[in-house]
Each structure stands twice: as structure tokens, then as C-alpha cells.
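Allow me, if you will, to draw on your knowledge of protein folds for a short while. I have a record of one protein: its chain in single-letter code and its fold written as C-alpha cells. Could you please explain, in whatever detail you think fit, how the C-alpha cells follow from the sequence? The record follows directly beneath this note:
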Amino acid sequence: MTYDALHHRSLTHTMSDEPQPNQPAPGWAARSSRSINAAPDGEDKRPKRQRRTGWRRLVPTWRLTLGTLLVAAVLLVGGFFLGYSLVKIPAANALATKQSNVYLYADGSVLARDGKVNRENVDLSGISEEAQHAVLAAEDRDFYTESAIDPQAMIRAAWNTATGKGKQSGSTITQQYVKNYYLAQEQTVTRKLKEFFISIKLDREKSKAEILEGYLNTSFFGRGAYGIQAAAQAYYGIDATDLTAAQGAYLASLLNAPSEYDVVAHPENKGAAEARWNYVLNGMVDKGWLPASERAGQTFPMPKETTTSTGMSGQRGYIVGIVNEYLTGHGLVGEEELDRGGYRITTTLEKDKQDAFVEAVDDKLMSRLDRKNRKVDTYVRAGGASVDPRTGKVVAMYNGIDYVKQYTPNATRRDFQVGSTFKPFVLASAVENGSLTQGGRAITPNTLYDGTNKRPVQGWDGGHYAPENEDQHSYGQITVREATDKSVNAVYAQMAVDVGSDKVKETAVDLGLPADTPDLVESPSIALGVAQASVLDMAEAYATLANHGRHGTYTLIEKVVKDGDHEVELPERKETQAISRQAADTTTSVLRSVVEKGTATAAQAAGRPAAGKTGTAEEDTAAWFAGYTPELATVVAVMGQDPETAAHMPLYGATGLARINGGGAPAEIWGQYTRQALEGEPVGTFDLRLQRGAAESEAPAGDPSATGSPTGDAPATPDAPETGGDRTPGTTQGATPPGTGDTGIPGDSSAGTGTDPGDDDGAGGGDTGTGGGVTPPDGGGTDPGDGTGDEDDDGGVTWPFPDASSTGP
């Protein structure tokens, strides 16, 4: 448009007579479509957004909502992957791996449990299916089909709780297992997050069966029981594999409130416990794990009032300590591993024999004590051990009245002299080595020796040694058998020199005594029992004699299993011919005489053929009886110890008697125990193969072993009355004061302080083991029973001792 046209148009509007519209005030633009859509100078103007007012200001826009959701999703996914990558499956926590060690009798019954945490892990196969299903019904019914994290389960659990349909955990079993096994129990956000991520990872790495097994082994059931195996024992005294549906449902109920639902501890809560129990059983029916017909017949299974004690009272503490020392000492289990627990240890101990041993000690010793009125009775201790000679298995032990009152195990301690129970080792060594007397005669059960009191031994270059006999009695010419019946110290000290004390020691070690036994010295005093072997040591040695000279170290362990599935390899027991059969059997024939008419007649109460020897320690601080039947070798000792100072104390006056001797309480305990332990078993006989010449007793003239020494205190008096051997066990006699026993010190002209001052007496001697004095026939072999062969010499003499009909109580 040209300037003239524009000017003309302007003049036309100005000069018009028509009314003009009001002009806007200065500063305001005219409202027109043009002004709205375009600004002056051609600038494009868009319409302004209307402002939100009122309540609409509080509602986010859809754009904001969508953006927020997208950001949250990105953060959530990123956080998940970050957490998944950062959180690792940790090592198990200390509590989860702690277990108790379970000690069993040979028949599988529980002997004791030891450990700070009462838990015994078992495989899933060791838990009955009924119990497994009961736990699933109680805690996580969709366990096998759900993932590790189940939001629906959390919602469902909350709804069930709110509507009174029974309380159910919102966590899956996987989550609960993670909490129990890997994490602590605190309720924190951090722990919850870790539980979340570990559960997911665990569900990918482990099978459902492995997770369920772990859960059942780590859950707490009350009564100090961690894991379902410990719970089954604590509440019902059975293994988890034997749990019924009803029992399993009750244990599953305990997971919800262990203390509250223990109906024995809290009978007032029985109604709530039964309601929970019914909820579990109904769940099992709903899932098809329990037939409805079977469910209808279920009755509430009341748990036991008293369960197997997990404490260390009675004999349990002693046995646990001894077994643990055996395991670690033989390198079978390390101390740290044993402390962590998880071992199921089956011992060789037989419960009926163990109970019989305790009963015998109570009847024959403990019941006779009066600790209030006789101070000496407070010193009395007892120890015992019983070994099967054929297998070397320790079948019973007695260690003390109660582990929580007397901690020292009396069956394994090595600080009391064994006394004259050592003398059979001297005789066995003499026969084994074909030893001769000073006059060159073979030593046999019927070889004559000089039994004069304080007779100096001949052929000993270590100095003057002249031991006393009990009660200062002199016997004169006496056979080895009679000397054993009466425990004549003068004879056995001389025999030890004749054999050689080094050889005697060697034989004792071969039979089973440890080489480092305290005071196992090479001197004439070795024959009198100055050695301090344990009751268990002596039982092993006597078991070798009972087994015809074949020795295998004793064993306390039958089986060891770790964590329910790993069996610890045990060393194979090896047996060797420690001494010849002739040496062992000849010794047995002599020890039979001790029981039949010597110092141990009380042992006849066993009612079986028996062989044994009594013994007493210095100053009557201990009295012993060691004996055996063909089936069982058992040693019993009564010891004196001050309960305050632990010092060895004499037992003069104990149980109201002048003194305790081996033919008294020890032999009586042995007799009662052996009768009960072997009750119902066939009566065996000793099948003995004796050395050649066992019945020959003529002593050549001039033999210094068989004649009195000019330096002796008393002449040989064969016909002298046997005043030193006529005490009867169980009656009161005048006490022999300390210092008048039979252990001398080489080089000292005075007698010793007494290894056997109170029990080695008898009412006679004689030959009871060679068929009335008949010399056994020659077997015709290369080693005709002369004591130098071994058990495999078929040419040896077989000369069975009289059978059971010749021995009676």
C-alpha cells in the first residue's frame, strides 16, 4: 500500500461524522484479535496458562506424576542392582555354627550333651516328613512354589493375624533362615535390607531342600534347643526322624512362641498352644500333607516332664572329659573343632553295665560311709574300669560320686600306687622269659621260695633291700602259688631280681601299662606295686592276661560323625601277642587260686570262674582288686584323698573298719558288678595252656632263693601259724600303723613304708590249677609249653583249668 493511500484512509476516518469508539487509556492496548495473537512489530504471542487455585494446587499434574514415577523406577531398579551387587552372602554367624557334641552309649541312647549351644545338625533325611510338613504348614505353606521374597505372603499373614485366623510369619522360610544363619536378630532397616538381598541370592544358589534343612537346624524351639533334632530330644526324648505328625505339629507351634507354648513350663497357656497346634494340623490337611481321616484321630502330644539331662552331673561329666581327651589325644579330632561342636560320638560304654557299676559302688561302699561322724569317710573315693578282653572295648567306668562335686576322674588318674595287683606281672614275666631262681631252677607256680619276713633279696647289686611281709609274718618255704595267695612280699621281691626288674617292666608295658607310668622303676620294689598306674591302665593289662596274652589297646569310641553326615575315620585296632599264651595262662591259673582261697574270696560273688589279685598302696591310701572272668576284665580301687587339700590320706577306720583292704570293698564291688554285668550271658570257662613243669615243686639244696639268709630277721618256719593271713574282709581288726608295709628302699637296712599292709592275706595255699598235682602231658611239638613259645605253637601243652563247676560263691 502507498503512502498516498494510507494518508487518504486516515483522513477519511478522521473526518467521518459517525461516532468513534472510546479510545483506550494511555498505556493500554486495544483488545482485538490482532492484539491477542500478535504483538506490535510482528512478534507472536501465545496464550498464558491459567493459574491453579484452591484445592487444585495440591494435586500433582499428570506430567509431574509421570515424571516422578519414571525417576523412582530408575532409582529403584538402579538401587536393586546396586544392592544386589554390593551385598554378598556372608559367612555364617557364630551362634549358627555352634553345636553341642552328643555322646551316646553303644546302643545309641543318649549319654550326655556338651556344648554352649544345644544343637545337633542333621540331614533333611534325618527329619521325618511329617515334621517337615508341619513346619511348612506353620511357617510357609507355599515354600516350594514361591520365590525367596513373597509380598503376597506378607499381606496374607497380616490379614490372618488381623482377622484372628492364626498368626503366621510374614517372612518366607528363606528369609527366616537367612536371619538365623547369616545375620543377627536385631530389628533394623540395614538388617532387613541385607536379609532381602541375601534371600534372593540364596534362592538362586541353593535348592529348596537345602534351605529347609538349614532352617530346621537353626531355628530355636525353646528349652535351650536349637534345631529340630535337639528339640525332638528335649521335648520327647527321640530323634527327629521318629517324630509323628502330632509331635511335629507341636514343635512347629513352638517356633511361633517357644517359651509361651511350652505347656510343661506354662500349663496356663495350654489352650493357646493347642489352638496353634490345631492350626498347623489343619494346614497340613489343606496342603494334602495329612489325610483328613488321620487328622481326625490326632490327640495333643504332651511333651515329657523330664527329658535327657544335658548337664554334667553324675558320671556324665567324667565320661565326656575322658572321651574328649581320647579323641584329641589320639589325633582323631582337634581341640578347636571339638569345641565348635557338631560331633555325634558313639562310645563303647554299655548302659546296663554302666548302671550296674554305679549301683555296686553305692551298695558296697558309699552306703557304708558316715561322713558326718567319721572324718575319714570324707576321704573315700572310688574308681573302676571294665574292659571286654576279646575286643578291648571299655564297657563301663566309675569315676566318682558326682562330677559337679568331685572333678577328678578316678578311673584315669595316675597318682596312687597299685600295690600287689602288680605282682602277677612279675610271674608272667618269669614264665615269658624262662627265668630261673638264684639256684638255677625254672620259676613255676610251684617253685619254692623263702617267705621269711625282711629277708634280704639275693643277687641285687643296688644295695640292701629286705621288704616286710604283711603283719611282719614269716612263711618259710612257700610255693609261688601260695605266695601269691598270701601276697608274700619277700618272695616277689626276690622273684623280681631273679627275672630281672628291667624284664618285669618290659612285660608290664607289653601287657598294657604306659611306658611312662610314674614310679615304674627297675628295682626289686617294682614287684610290690610302687608304680602309679590308673585303674583303666590296669584293666587293660589284666584284659591281656584274660585274652591269653594277646594285647590290643583299649578303645572308648565306636563311631564319630560330624554334622550328621561326615564319619570320622577311626584307626583299625591291632592286636599282638604281647606275651606267650603259656605265660598268660599260667598266671591266670595262679590268680584263680587267689579268688578260690586267697585274699579275694569275696570276688566269688560273681558266680563265675574268676581270677584276680588284691593290692594296697602305701599307708593304706588305696585298696585295689583287679580281676577277670573269661568275658570281662574289671579293676576297682578305693582311694583316700583330702577334699580340701587333695592330699593322699590313709583309710584307717573308713566305713567303720580298722582298715580298707583289696579283699573288702573293692572285691565286693567287683563281685556284685560282674554278676550283674554278665547276667544272662553263658558262663564261660578258662581254656588254659600252662607252662611245662607247672606242678613240679622240689627245690634243689643250696638255692639261696629257697633258703633263709643268715642276715635275715627270722628263720624259715614252714610250719609257723599263719597269723598274718587270717583276716576276714568286713570285720574289724587291729590296724597296722603306717610305715609297716612292704616297700623297701634299696640300700636302706630298714624296711619300707608299706605297699600292701592291709589286704594280702589268705587262709591257705595249694595248687588248684594243675589237676591235683598231675604234670600236664607233653604236647609233642617244637615248643612243648615251656613258656618260651607263643600262642601259635601247636605243640604246646593244653591244660584246661577246672571249669565253672569247680568255682562257686
User: Anything to note?
Assistant: The chain is about 30% helix and 10% strand. The chain has a mean pLDDT of 79.
